[in-house]
């Protein structure tokens, strides 16, 4: 609409017929302009036309209705609002379309009588109303269809969005286009999954050509996408899932390794988890497993897989491995989420027991506890913890009590079974 | 209809030899068979404003020789003529007498066209575009000379003017809209605009002494009973409205009372109109009768009317010369509605005090009396009105939110690409609207209300806003003193009444004063502002004007500093003696002869 203004030339509309208030008497009013719409759209501006005043107040009414969950009223005002799209003033055009899109869908979400048809209608209209939001609206539309179980329609939406081109605009939004592409592949996977579960026995029948087609389409695209740096968790899982079915282990491993170890990608602990899980599923050697978990330990010391890691370390005969295991378990217990977890404490007990076989084990323990001795007692071994643990989990208390002295030999811990009465220590 | 003028001329036409002459708009003779224009003219009479037996301007001359694909060649003033006619017809349908249109509006319109040299003149406004077209000055002079004799596109224009006429309308449907928008003219505003039609109608209504005030007219426009927004949609099919025509014909606001009045005032002086027909006490526009209407609308007792009239007389405001426009004695067009409302407010101030104490004290006294059945109690009235007012304000806000401004047939730009964009947006807007109309089962836009002079409805029927208080007596607030009815309240407050120098204080002081004014007064101001759909400062200024008439202007405005824009005004109390003299009335309802004190 920039052109319209150029065509109309330097003349603004001839009318100058609004006085905002009698307090602002206009002086010589041929300087008529487009109203200055603020980002806060509900602000009244001086010299606003009747049309803009109507749309502003309409928006305020819609907002009130939506905030008070009066959906029928909101829908009624929403019917009066679209005239805003025909506004010939330039700057707020994109803002208007976005407002209309988001508020309409919000109202449709909550209004009791809204149907899928209404949604489709609104999405289609708003999609074609402008270029800047086209891709996002397509994405939202397909998500909506997906949520309502219309996978094929969702996929179709994304496919048509994938092929959308609009000169400079589509070039500027290439990241969104990639996202759409990725989700399209994901939808291929979803449909593939559906087909798989509906024909669970005969995967390789020729009747399942459709299923294989989906696999092909999905995998082609995913392979490309997964090369780009980013966080692609659900995509990679779906890809690996498909590859596993078709027994392409080499490709699966390659993809997973790439995802985990490629320095271009942002550090992602999940990558290592997925790799570990895959290796475990396919009976990899303990050495390989430990290698993966070692990196995970660095990234997320409190991860639950650390239990697995220490179990693996205990299995080995190496002395240093046992010591490592101690370190790992202690790192886990640094975090309060594991404080009352029985398994972790039992594991620690096992580690200590294995360690006690070695000579010099006290020094090892001391060394590991050196950094912790200031704050561990307060974290685990106060009298409050004692009473609580006794109440809730006496077995835990037993394990902890046995370890308390070992871990903090020099300190006088209050982790005992003595009752505390009236706050006074007895 | 031109036969009376052409009957004397019996020469055959040089082109077609027929004897069938008509008169063009510039009073040249033309042959009705072949449209050949000859030099003979009918003398332009500078007739007095009101012409008797003049023909209606109701149609464009048919049979233009040129009929391009885009329809008739038409001039902007023709478009406005159509719109004005439609507006007048709408008013006729609402009950205005036909003389308003035939005997007043039409001659007024023709006079306007003549004075602004848009038509009916041998010396029309020269279009600057015609001059720009030709670089050769001779041909430019020639073409502008030709256009002088043939501003109307239908009379046989020579080919040079033809091409310029075509070029001029490249960007619009009408031929001459650019001349209305050229920078030279724009500095003094376009000579014709939608708002001017309202101003013209208002003047015609006042001249015809119809009971429609300006605020009524604007309300009718707002409710859609009188075409205004998108009025161009009612133009005939052949008159295509495109491109730059939008700048004149498309409106996105309904002008305020203040602006239209200013425009009407300017128009009256521009047209050099003579004295208007007198607005006497029997005329419905006169405050004496208009106040009855407002009192009824606001559910105030009928007895109050007596006091309004008394006040008017004592202040010397009942005289018809004050209410009738006259270029010599009263060169300001009166604002009947605003003035009447202000009078009512001042009357209530006299009777009730409205200083946040007196009126409630009086109410309490009324309430305490045992037989207060039909005595007017201000508190009861206030509670009733406040409720109704709030609901009405909310409803008005909802109507503003729901109002649809965009036309079914928008004015498209000439550029095809832009036109397509506009059409696409319109389609999208319509479809989203349809979707939500279906969802909410309520069509967009404001529900049509039947036109009424009254905003509120009082009585016991269904659908009324509340019980009627018109029959209540004012016994609680007036007493018999020395055999004369006087208000019980004997004090009156008012802010400094000296008129401000407009150069130093161009705007109203209301926003500064408002926090210091009594809340009852402010509320009453808001009530009447809502009734007339104006802003409170506007009405406040009028109240001050009335008070100046009544009390005088000796009380000074307290100027804190010359440089500062804000001023404080001292509130002064008039002496009881001036009040007594002002408001004492005889026991009967006849008018007293005394002038203002």
Automatic annotation (TrEMBL), chain A:
GO terms for cellular component: RNA polymerase I transcription regulator complex. Pfam families: TAF1_subA (PF14929). Residues 1-46 are annotated as: Disordered. GO terms for biological process: heart contraction; transcription by RNA polymerase I. InterPro entries: SL1/TIF-IB_Component (IPR052669), TAF1A (IPR039495). Coiled coil: none annotated. It comes from the Eukaryota. This is TATA box binding protein (TBP)-associated factor, RNA polymerase I, A. It comes from Acanthochromis polyacanthus (spiny chromis). The lineage of its organism: Eukaryota, Metazoa, Chordata, Craniata, Vertebrata.
TrEMBL record, chain B:
GO terms for molecular function: RNA polymerase I core promoter sequence-specific DNA binding; zinc ion binding. It comes from the Eukaryota. Residues 138-150 have a biased composition (Low complexity). GO terms for biological process: nucleolar large rRNA transcription by RNA polymerase I. It holds the Pfam family Rrn7_cyclin_C. Keywords: DNA-binding, Metal-binding, Nucleus, Transcription, Transcription regulation, Zinc, Zinc-finger. Residues 129-176, 560-597 are annotated as: Disordered. GO terms for cellular component: RNA polymerase I core factor complex; RNA polymerase transcription factor SL1 complex. Residues 253-439 form the Rrn7/TAF1B C-terminal cyclin domain. Residues 8-39 form the RRN7-type domain. Belongs to the RRN7/TAF1B family. This is TATA box-binding protein-associated factor RNA polymerase I subunit B. It comes from Acanthochromis polyacanthus.
């Amino acid at each position: 609409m920039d052109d319209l203004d150029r065509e109309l030339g330097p003349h603004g509309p001839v009318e100058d017929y609004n006085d905002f208030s009698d307090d602002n008497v206009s002086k010589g009013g041929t300087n008529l302009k487009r109203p200055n719409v603020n980002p806060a759209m509900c602000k009244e501006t001086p010299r606003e036309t009747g049309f803009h005043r109507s749309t502003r107040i309409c928006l305020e009414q819609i907002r009130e209705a939506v905030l008070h969950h009066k959906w029928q009223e909101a829908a009624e005002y929403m019917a009066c609002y679209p005239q805003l799209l025909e506004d010939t003033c330039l700057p707020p055009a994109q803002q208007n379309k976005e407002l209309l899109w988001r508020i309409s869908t919000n109202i449709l979400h909550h209004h009791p009588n809204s149907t899928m048809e209404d949604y489709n209608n609104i999405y289609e209209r708003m999609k074609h109303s402008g270029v800047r939001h086209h891709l996002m609206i397509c994405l939202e539309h397909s998500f909506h269809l997906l949520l309502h179980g219309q996978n094929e329609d969702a996929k179709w939406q994304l496919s048509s969005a994938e092929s959308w081109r609009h000169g400079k605009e589509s070039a500027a939004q290439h990241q969104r286009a990639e996202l759409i592409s990725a989700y399209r592949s994901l939808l291929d996977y979803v449909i593939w999954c559906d087909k798989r579960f509906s024909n669970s026995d005969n995967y390789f029948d020729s009747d399942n050509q459709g299923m294989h087609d989906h696999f092909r389409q999905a995998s082609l695209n995913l392979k490309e996408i997964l090369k780009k740096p980013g966080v692609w968790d659900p995509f990679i899982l779906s890809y690996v899932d498909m590859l596993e079915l078709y027994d392409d282990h080499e490709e699966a491993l390659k993809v997973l390794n790439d995802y985990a170890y490629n320095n271009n990608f942002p550090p992602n602990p999940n990558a290592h988890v997925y790799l570990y899980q895959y290796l475990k599923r396919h009976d990899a050697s303990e050495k390989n497993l430990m290698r993966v978990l070692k990196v995970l330990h660095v990234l997320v010391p409190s991860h639950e897989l650390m239990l697995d890691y220490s179990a693996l370390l205990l299995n080995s005969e190496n002395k240093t491995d046992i010591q490592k295991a101690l370190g790992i378990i202690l790192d886990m217990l640094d975090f309060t989420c594991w404080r009352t977890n029985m398994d972790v404490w039992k594991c620690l007990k096992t580690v200590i027991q294995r360690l006690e076989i070695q000579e010099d084990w006290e020094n090892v323990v001391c060394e590991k506890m050196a950094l912790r001795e200031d704050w561990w007692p307060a974290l685990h071994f106060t009298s409050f913890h004692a009473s609580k643990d006794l109440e809730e989990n006496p077995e835990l208390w037993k394990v902890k009590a046995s370890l308390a002295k070992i871990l903090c030999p020099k300190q006088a811990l209050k982790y005992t079974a003595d009752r505390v009465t009236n706050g006074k220590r007895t | 209809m031109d036969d009376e003028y052409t009957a004397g001329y019996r020469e055959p036409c040089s082109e077609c030899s027929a004897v069938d002459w008509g008169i063009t708009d510039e009073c040249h003779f033309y042959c009705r068979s072949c449209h050949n224009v000859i030099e003979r003219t009918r003398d332009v009479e500078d007739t007095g404003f009101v012409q008797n037996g003049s023909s209606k301007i109701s149609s464009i001359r048919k049979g233009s020789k040129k009929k391009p694909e885009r329809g008739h060649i038409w001039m902007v003033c023709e478009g406005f003529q159509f719109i004005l006619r439609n507006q007048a017809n709408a008013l006729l349908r609402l009950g205005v007498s036909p003389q308003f249109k035939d005997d007043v509006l039409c001659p007024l319109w023709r006079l306007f066209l003549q004075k602004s040299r848009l038509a009916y003149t041998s010396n029309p406004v020269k279009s600057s575009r015609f001059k720009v077209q030709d670089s050769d000055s001779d041909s430019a002079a020639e073409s502008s000379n030709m256009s002088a004799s043939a501003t109307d596109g239908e009379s046989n224009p020579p080919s040079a003017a033809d091409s310029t006429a075509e070029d001029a309308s490249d960007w619009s449907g009408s031929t001459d809209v650019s001349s209305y928008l050229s920078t030279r003219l724009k500095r003094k505003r376009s000579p014709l605009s939608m708002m001017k039609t309202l101003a013209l109608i208002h003047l015609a209504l006042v001249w015809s002494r119809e009971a429609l005030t300006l605020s009524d007219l604007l309300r009718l426009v707002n409710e859609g009973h009188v075409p205004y927004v998108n009025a161009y949609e009612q133009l005939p099919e052949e008159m295509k409205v495109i491109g730059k025509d939008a700048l004149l014909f498309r409106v996105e606001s309904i002008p305020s009372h203040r602006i239209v009045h200013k425009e009407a005032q300017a128009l009256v002086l521009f047209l050099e109109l003579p004295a208007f027909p007198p607005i006497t006490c029997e005329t419905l526009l006169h405050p004496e009768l208009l106040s009855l209407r407002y009192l009824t609308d606001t559910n105030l007792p009928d007895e109050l009317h007596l006091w309004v009239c008394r006040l008017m007389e004592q202040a010397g405001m009942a005289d018809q010369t004050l209410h009738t426009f006259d270029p010599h004695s009263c060169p300001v067009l009166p604002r009947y509605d605003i003035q009447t409302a202000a009078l009512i407010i001042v009357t209530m101030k006299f009777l009730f005090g409205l200083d946040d104490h007196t009126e409630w004290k009086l109410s309490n006294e009324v309430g305490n009396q045992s037989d207060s059945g039909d005595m007017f109690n201000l508190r009861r009235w206030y509670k009733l009105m406040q409720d109704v007012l709030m609901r009405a304000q909310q409803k008005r806000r909802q109507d503003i939110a729901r109002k649809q401004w965009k036309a079914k047939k928008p004015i498209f730009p000439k550029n095809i690409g832009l036109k397509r964009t506009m059409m696409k947006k319109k389609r999208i807007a319509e479809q989203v609207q349809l979707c939500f109309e279906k969802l909410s089962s309520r069509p967009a836009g404001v529900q049509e209300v039947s036109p009424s002079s009254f905003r509120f409805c009082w009585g016991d029927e269904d659908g009324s806003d509340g019980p009627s208080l018109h029959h209540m007596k004012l016994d609680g607030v007036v007493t018999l003193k020395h055999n004369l009815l006087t208000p019980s309240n004997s004090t009156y407050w008012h802010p400094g009444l000296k008129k401000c120098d407009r150069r130093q204080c161009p705007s109203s002081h209301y926003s500064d004063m408002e926090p210091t004014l009594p809340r009852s007064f402010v509320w009453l101001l808001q009530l009447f502002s809502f009734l007339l759909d104006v802003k409170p400062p506007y009405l406040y200024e009028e109240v001050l004007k009335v008070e100046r008439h009544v009390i005088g202007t000796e009380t000074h405005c307290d100027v804190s500093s010359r440089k500062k824009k804000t001023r404080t005004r001292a509130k002064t109390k008039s002496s009881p003696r001036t009040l007594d003299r002002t408001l004492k009335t005889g026991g009967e309802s006849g008018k007293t002869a005394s002038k203002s004190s």
